[in-house]
Amino acid sequence: MKKLNYTFKNPELLELALTQSGVDAKHNNERLEFIGDRVLGLSVAALLYEMYPSEREGELARRHSMLVSTETLANVAIQIGLDKLVRHGHMTAGRNRHMYANTTEAVFGAIFLDGGFDVARDVIVELWRDLAAAEIIAPKDPKTALQEFVQKSASGALPVYEYLTVTGASHKPVFNVRVSAMGRTATGSGATKKAASAAAAEELLKILAI
Question: What is its subcellular localisation (predicted)?
Answer without folding.
Answer: Cytoplasm
